[in-house]
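Q: Given only this backbone (347 positions), what sequence would you predict?
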Protein backbone atom coordinates (compact mmCIF):
# COMPACT_ATOMS: atom_id res chain seq x y z
CA UNK A 1 0.00 0.00 0.00
CA UNK A 2 1.50 3.38 -0.96
CA UNK A 3 2.49 5.87 1.69
CA UNK A 4 1.90 9.60 1.61
CA UNK A 5 4.46 11.68 -0.29
CA UNK A 6 5.94 14.40 1.88
CA UNK A 7 5.06 17.96 0.90
CA UNK A 8 8.73 18.65 0.11
CA UNK A 9 8.69 15.89 -2.53
CA UNK A 10 5.54 17.15 -4.22
CA UNK A 11 5.76 19.02 -7.49
CA UNK A 12 4.66 22.61 -6.89
CA UNK A 13 1.60 23.94 -8.65
CA UNK A 14 2.16 27.03 -10.77
CA UNK A 15 0.60 30.38 -9.97
CA UNK A 16 -0.98 31.15 -13.32
CA UNK A 17 -3.07 34.31 -13.88
CA UNK A 18 -6.88 34.17 -14.08
CA UNK A 19 -9.55 36.83 -14.58
CA UNK A 20 -10.29 38.19 -11.11
CA UNK A 21 -9.16 37.27 -7.61
CA UNK A 22 -8.39 33.70 -6.61
CA UNK A 23 -10.03 32.27 -3.52
CA UNK A 24 -10.86 29.04 -1.68
CA UNK A 25 -14.21 28.30 -0.04
CA UNK A 26 -13.47 25.76 2.70
CA UNK A 27 -16.45 23.66 3.78
CA UNK A 28 -17.29 23.17 7.43
CA UNK A 29 -18.10 20.68 8.78
CA UNK A 30 -15.64 18.42 6.96
CA UNK A 31 -13.39 15.51 7.77
CA UNK A 32 -13.48 13.17 10.76
CA UNK A 33 -16.82 12.38 12.31
CA UNK A 34 -17.28 11.04 15.83
CA UNK A 35 -17.63 7.42 14.70
CA UNK A 36 -14.45 7.51 12.61
CA UNK A 37 -12.42 9.15 15.35
CA UNK A 38 -13.68 6.57 17.85
CA UNK A 39 -12.71 3.69 15.56
CA UNK A 40 -9.22 4.99 14.76
CA UNK A 41 -8.43 5.67 18.41
CA UNK A 42 -9.78 2.22 19.30
CA UNK A 43 -7.08 0.62 17.14
CA UNK A 44 -4.40 2.93 18.56
CA UNK A 45 -5.42 2.18 22.14
CA UNK A 46 -5.63 -1.55 21.45
CA UNK A 47 -2.02 -1.41 20.20
CA UNK A 48 -0.99 0.50 23.33
CA UNK A 49 -2.83 -1.92 25.60
CA UNK A 50 -2.02 -5.28 24.02
CA UNK A 51 1.02 -4.54 21.86
CA UNK A 52 1.50 -5.28 18.18
CA UNK A 53 0.13 -6.93 16.26
CA UNK A 54 -3.54 -6.12 16.62
CA UNK A 55 -5.67 -7.43 13.77
CA UNK A 56 -8.44 -5.41 12.10
CA UNK A 57 -11.15 -6.97 9.95
CA UNK A 58 -11.40 -4.89 6.76
CA UNK A 59 -10.18 -1.29 6.69
CA UNK A 60 -11.01 0.31 10.03
CA UNK A 61 -12.30 3.31 8.04
CA UNK A 62 -12.20 3.91 4.30
CA UNK A 63 -9.09 6.07 4.06
CA UNK A 64 -5.75 4.94 2.64
CA UNK A 65 -3.72 7.37 4.77
CA UNK A 66 -5.31 6.26 8.05
CA UNK A 67 -4.87 2.58 7.20
CA UNK A 68 -1.22 3.06 6.20
CA UNK A 69 -0.39 4.92 9.41
CA UNK A 70 -2.03 2.25 11.57
CA UNK A 71 -0.14 -0.47 9.69
CA UNK A 72 3.09 1.35 10.51
CA UNK A 73 2.09 1.26 14.19
CA UNK A 74 1.52 -2.50 14.12
CA UNK A 75 -2.05 -3.07 12.94
CA UNK A 76 -2.61 -5.92 10.49
CA UNK A 77 -5.64 -5.62 8.25
CA UNK A 78 -7.35 -8.81 7.11
CA UNK A 79 -10.40 -9.56 5.01
CA UNK A 80 -11.96 -12.19 7.28
CA UNK A 81 -11.55 -13.39 10.86
CA UNK A 82 -10.32 -16.82 9.75
CA UNK A 83 -7.06 -15.07 8.77
CA UNK A 84 -6.48 -14.04 12.40
CA UNK A 85 -4.41 -16.36 14.62
CA UNK A 86 -6.46 -18.09 17.29
CA UNK A 87 -6.59 -16.17 20.56
CA UNK A 88 -5.43 -12.86 19.01
CA UNK A 89 -7.08 -9.44 19.36
CA UNK A 90 -9.24 -8.33 16.46
CA UNK A 91 -11.02 -5.01 15.92
CA UNK A 92 -14.25 -4.84 13.93
CA UNK A 93 -14.31 -1.79 11.66
CA UNK A 94 -16.53 1.28 11.96
CA UNK A 95 -18.77 -0.12 9.20
CA UNK A 96 -20.05 -2.96 11.36
CA UNK A 97 -20.21 -6.73 10.95
CA UNK A 98 -22.91 -9.37 10.71
CA UNK A 99 -23.70 -11.82 13.54
CA UNK A 100 -22.00 -14.52 11.46
CA UNK A 101 -18.70 -12.62 11.67
CA UNK A 102 -19.08 -12.15 15.42
CA UNK A 103 -19.69 -15.88 15.79
CA UNK A 104 -16.74 -16.69 13.56
CA UNK A 105 -14.46 -14.64 15.81
CA UNK A 106 -15.83 -16.35 18.91
CA UNK A 107 -15.31 -19.78 17.35
CA UNK A 108 -11.61 -18.97 16.90
CA UNK A 109 -11.26 -17.71 20.47
CA UNK A 110 -10.48 -14.19 19.30
CA UNK A 111 -10.62 -11.23 21.64
CA UNK A 112 -12.96 -8.97 19.67
CA UNK A 113 -13.17 -5.21 20.04
CA UNK A 114 -16.25 -3.77 18.36
CA UNK A 115 -15.49 -0.35 16.83
CA UNK A 116 -18.75 -0.23 14.87
CA UNK A 117 -20.06 3.33 14.65
CA UNK A 118 -23.00 3.63 17.06
CA UNK A 119 -25.10 5.12 14.24
CA UNK A 120 -24.54 1.96 12.20
CA UNK A 121 -25.40 -0.13 15.26
CA UNK A 122 -28.70 1.75 15.40
CA UNK A 123 -29.56 0.56 11.88
CA UNK A 124 -28.62 -3.01 12.82
CA UNK A 125 -31.05 -2.87 15.73
CA UNK A 126 -33.77 -1.53 13.47
CA UNK A 127 -33.23 -4.44 11.09
CA UNK A 128 -33.49 -6.95 13.93
CA UNK A 129 -36.66 -5.34 15.25
CA UNK A 130 -38.46 -5.14 11.92
CA UNK A 131 -37.45 -8.70 11.05
CA UNK A 132 -38.82 -9.88 14.38
CA UNK A 133 -42.12 -8.23 13.44
CA UNK A 134 -42.00 -10.05 10.09
CA UNK A 135 -41.51 -6.96 7.92
CA UNK A 136 -39.76 -7.14 4.58
CA UNK A 137 -36.82 -4.72 4.75
CA UNK A 138 -35.78 -2.77 1.67
CA UNK A 139 -32.21 -1.78 2.46
CA UNK A 140 -31.12 1.18 0.33
CA UNK A 141 -27.39 0.93 -0.18
CA UNK A 142 -24.55 -0.41 -2.27
CA UNK A 143 -24.34 -4.17 -2.47
CA UNK A 144 -20.89 -5.35 -1.40
CA UNK A 145 -20.21 -2.38 0.90
CA UNK A 146 -19.16 -3.63 4.36
CA UNK A 147 -21.89 -1.64 6.10
CA UNK A 148 -24.61 -3.09 3.88
CA UNK A 149 -23.26 -6.61 4.34
CA UNK A 150 -23.30 -6.17 8.11
CA UNK A 151 -26.85 -4.78 8.25
CA UNK A 152 -28.23 -7.36 5.83
CA UNK A 153 -26.55 -10.08 7.86
CA UNK A 154 -28.71 -9.21 10.86
CA UNK A 155 -31.82 -10.51 9.04
CA UNK A 156 -30.81 -12.05 5.71
CA UNK A 157 -34.19 -13.70 5.07
CA UNK A 158 -35.99 -10.37 5.48
CA UNK A 159 -33.63 -7.99 3.63
CA UNK A 160 -33.63 -6.99 -0.04
CA UNK A 161 -30.92 -4.56 -1.12
CA UNK A 162 -31.97 -1.66 -3.36
CA UNK A 163 -28.85 -0.24 -5.03
CA UNK A 164 -30.33 2.76 -6.85
CA UNK A 165 -33.51 4.70 -7.63
CA UNK A 166 -33.90 2.67 -10.82
CA UNK A 167 -33.92 -0.58 -8.84
CA UNK A 168 -36.83 0.82 -6.83
CA UNK A 169 -38.91 0.44 -10.00
CA UNK A 170 -38.26 -3.29 -10.32
CA UNK A 171 -37.81 -4.66 -6.79
CA UNK A 172 -40.29 -7.41 -5.90
CA UNK A 173 -41.80 -7.80 -2.41
CA UNK A 174 -43.92 -10.57 -0.93
CA UNK A 175 -46.41 -8.38 0.94
CA UNK A 176 -46.62 -4.70 -0.13
CA UNK A 177 -48.60 -3.96 3.03
CA UNK A 178 -45.73 -4.92 5.34
CA UNK A 179 -42.61 -3.26 3.99
CA UNK A 180 -40.11 -0.87 5.62
CA UNK A 181 -37.05 0.90 4.25
CA UNK A 182 -33.67 1.32 5.93
CA UNK A 183 -30.49 2.78 4.44
CA UNK A 184 -26.73 2.73 4.44
CA UNK A 185 -25.61 5.67 6.59
CA UNK A 186 -23.21 7.23 4.07
CA UNK A 187 -25.43 7.76 1.03
CA UNK A 188 -26.44 10.92 -0.75
CA UNK A 189 -29.50 12.31 1.02
CA UNK A 190 -31.07 13.38 -2.27
CA UNK A 191 -30.59 10.04 -4.04
CA UNK A 192 -31.84 8.13 -1.01
CA UNK A 193 -35.04 10.15 -0.88
CA UNK A 194 -35.54 9.73 -4.61
CA UNK A 195 -35.31 5.98 -4.08
CA UNK A 196 -37.74 6.16 -1.17
CA UNK A 197 -40.23 8.22 -3.17
CA UNK A 198 -40.12 5.77 -6.06
CA UNK A 199 -40.57 2.86 -3.68
CA UNK A 200 -43.53 4.57 -2.02
CA UNK A 201 -45.16 5.20 -5.38
CA UNK A 202 -45.26 1.43 -5.84
CA UNK A 203 -45.81 0.49 -2.19
CA UNK A 204 -47.99 3.17 -0.51
CA UNK A 205 -47.84 1.34 2.84
CA UNK A 206 -44.03 1.54 2.94
CA UNK A 207 -42.95 2.45 6.47
CA UNK A 208 -40.09 4.77 7.44
CA UNK A 209 -37.37 3.90 9.96
CA UNK A 210 -38.05 5.38 13.40
CA UNK A 211 -35.33 7.98 12.79
CA UNK A 212 -33.17 9.07 9.87
CA UNK A 213 -30.58 6.43 8.98
CA UNK A 214 -28.22 8.68 7.01
CA UNK A 215 -25.65 9.83 9.53
CA UNK A 216 -25.47 13.41 10.74
CA UNK A 217 -21.92 13.82 9.44
CA UNK A 218 -22.81 12.66 5.93
CA UNK A 219 -25.75 15.06 5.83
CA UNK A 220 -23.75 17.98 7.24
CA UNK A 221 -20.94 17.56 4.73
CA UNK A 222 -23.39 17.39 1.85
CA UNK A 223 -25.23 20.51 3.04
CA UNK A 224 -21.94 22.42 3.28
CA UNK A 225 -20.78 21.49 -0.22
CA UNK A 226 -24.22 22.30 -1.66
CA UNK A 227 -23.84 25.84 -0.34
CA UNK A 228 -20.36 26.20 -1.83
CA UNK A 229 -20.90 24.42 -5.16
CA UNK A 230 -22.96 27.13 -6.85
CA UNK A 231 -20.09 29.59 -6.47
CA UNK A 232 -17.26 27.18 -7.31
CA UNK A 233 -15.45 26.81 -10.61
CA UNK A 234 -13.81 23.71 -9.12
CA UNK A 235 -14.48 21.52 -6.08
CA UNK A 236 -11.78 19.30 -4.59
CA UNK A 237 -12.93 16.54 -2.25
CA UNK A 238 -10.25 14.91 -0.12
CA UNK A 239 -11.08 11.25 0.42
CA UNK A 240 -10.41 7.72 -0.77
CA UNK A 241 -12.05 5.96 -3.71
CA UNK A 242 -13.69 3.34 -1.50
CA UNK A 243 -15.20 5.99 0.79
CA UNK A 244 -18.87 6.14 -0.16
CA UNK A 245 -19.47 9.50 1.49
CA UNK A 246 -16.41 11.05 -0.22
CA UNK A 247 -17.54 9.85 -3.64
CA UNK A 248 -21.03 11.20 -2.94
CA UNK A 249 -19.57 14.64 -2.15
CA UNK A 250 -18.14 14.85 -5.67
CA UNK A 251 -21.52 13.93 -7.12
CA UNK A 252 -23.39 16.41 -4.91
CA UNK A 253 -20.98 19.22 -5.85
CA UNK A 254 -21.65 18.65 -9.55
CA UNK A 255 -25.40 18.34 -9.04
CA UNK A 256 -25.51 21.67 -7.18
CA UNK A 257 -23.61 23.80 -9.66
CA UNK A 258 -19.87 23.21 -9.45
CA UNK A 259 -18.34 23.49 -12.91
CA UNK A 260 -15.93 20.63 -12.11
CA UNK A 261 -15.27 18.38 -9.12
CA UNK A 262 -12.57 15.84 -8.34
CA UNK A 263 -11.63 13.51 -5.50
CA UNK A 264 -8.02 13.17 -4.30
CA UNK A 265 -6.32 11.21 -1.55
CA UNK A 266 -3.34 13.53 -1.34
CA UNK A 267 -2.28 17.03 -2.37
CA UNK A 268 0.11 15.70 -5.00
CA UNK A 269 -2.90 14.41 -6.97
CA UNK A 270 -4.20 17.93 -7.66
CA UNK A 271 -3.49 18.54 -11.34
CA UNK A 272 -2.33 21.84 -12.81
CA UNK A 273 -4.87 21.71 -15.65
CA UNK A 274 -7.75 21.60 -13.17
CA UNK A 275 -6.82 25.15 -12.13
CA UNK A 276 -6.73 26.73 -15.58
CA UNK A 277 -9.08 29.73 -15.59
CA UNK A 278 -10.37 28.87 -12.11
CA UNK A 279 -11.08 31.73 -9.71
CA UNK A 280 -13.01 29.97 -6.91
CA UNK A 281 -12.17 26.52 -5.54
CA UNK A 282 -14.34 24.70 -3.04
CA UNK A 283 -12.54 22.29 -0.71
CA UNK A 284 -14.03 19.66 1.56
CA UNK A 285 -13.25 16.16 2.84
CA UNK A 286 -15.08 12.96 3.58
CA UNK A 287 -15.95 11.81 7.09
CA UNK A 288 -12.94 9.46 7.32
CA UNK A 289 -10.28 12.03 6.34
CA UNK A 290 -7.82 13.51 8.88
CA UNK A 291 -7.49 17.28 8.74
CA UNK A 292 -3.76 17.12 7.94
CA UNK A 293 -4.60 15.98 4.41
CA UNK A 294 -6.90 18.96 3.87
CA UNK A 295 -4.20 21.32 5.14
CA UNK A 296 -1.73 19.90 2.64
CA UNK A 297 -4.20 20.52 -0.21
CA UNK A 298 -4.66 24.10 1.00
CA UNK A 299 -0.88 24.53 1.09
CA UNK A 300 -0.61 23.31 -2.50
CA UNK A 301 -3.37 25.69 -3.60
CA UNK A 302 -1.68 28.55 -1.75
CA UNK A 303 1.41 27.98 -3.90
CA UNK A 304 -0.82 28.35 -6.94
CA UNK A 305 -2.09 31.73 -5.72
CA UNK A 306 -5.18 30.62 -3.81
CA UNK A 307 -4.13 32.19 -0.52
CA UNK A 308 -7.53 33.71 0.32
CA UNK A 309 -9.37 30.98 2.26
CA UNK A 310 -12.90 31.57 3.55
CA UNK A 311 -14.50 28.93 5.75
CA UNK A 312 -18.17 28.35 4.95
CA UNK A 313 -19.82 26.82 8.00
CA UNK A 314 -23.32 25.36 7.84
CA UNK A 315 -23.47 23.38 11.11
CA UNK A 316 -21.73 22.75 14.43
CA UNK A 317 -20.93 19.18 15.44
CA UNK A 318 -20.67 18.26 19.11
CA UNK A 319 -21.76 14.61 19.15
CA UNK A 320 -19.54 12.50 21.41
CA UNK A 321 -19.00 8.73 21.45
CA UNK A 322 -17.17 6.83 24.18
CA UNK A 323 -14.64 4.15 23.33
CA UNK A 324 -15.65 0.50 22.86
CA UNK A 325 -16.27 -1.08 26.24
CA UNK A 326 -13.14 -3.23 25.99
CA UNK A 327 -10.97 -0.08 26.00
CA UNK A 328 -12.67 2.10 28.59
CA UNK A 329 -10.14 1.22 31.28
CA UNK A 330 -6.40 1.66 31.14
CA UNK A 331 -3.87 -1.06 31.94
CA UNK A 332 -4.10 -0.24 35.66
CA UNK A 333 -7.87 -0.69 35.56
CA UNK A 334 -8.62 3.02 35.86
CA UNK A 335 -11.66 4.15 33.92
CA UNK A 336 -10.81 6.09 30.76
CA UNK A 337 -13.39 8.84 30.50
CA UNK A 338 -12.29 9.93 27.05
CA UNK A 339 -15.12 10.66 24.64
CA UNK A 340 -14.42 11.50 21.05
CA UNK A 341 -15.96 14.36 19.11
CA UNK A 342 -16.59 14.70 15.41
CA UNK A 343 -14.05 17.35 14.36
CA UNK A 344 -10.83 15.92 15.73
CA UNK A 345 -7.73 16.82 13.72
CA UNK A 346 -5.31 13.92 13.69
CA UNK A 347 -2.04 13.75 11.74
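A: Predicted residues:
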Amino acid sequence: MPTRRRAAERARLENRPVDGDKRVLLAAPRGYCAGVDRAVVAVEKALERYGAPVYVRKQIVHNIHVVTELEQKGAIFVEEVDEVPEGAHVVFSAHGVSPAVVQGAADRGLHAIDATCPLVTKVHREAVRFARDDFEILLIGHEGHEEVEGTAGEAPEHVTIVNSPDEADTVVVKDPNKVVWLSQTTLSVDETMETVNRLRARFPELQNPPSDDICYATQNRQVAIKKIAKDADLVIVVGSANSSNSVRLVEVALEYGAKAAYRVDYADEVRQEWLDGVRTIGVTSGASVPEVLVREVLQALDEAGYADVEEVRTAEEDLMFSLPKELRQDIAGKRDERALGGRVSRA
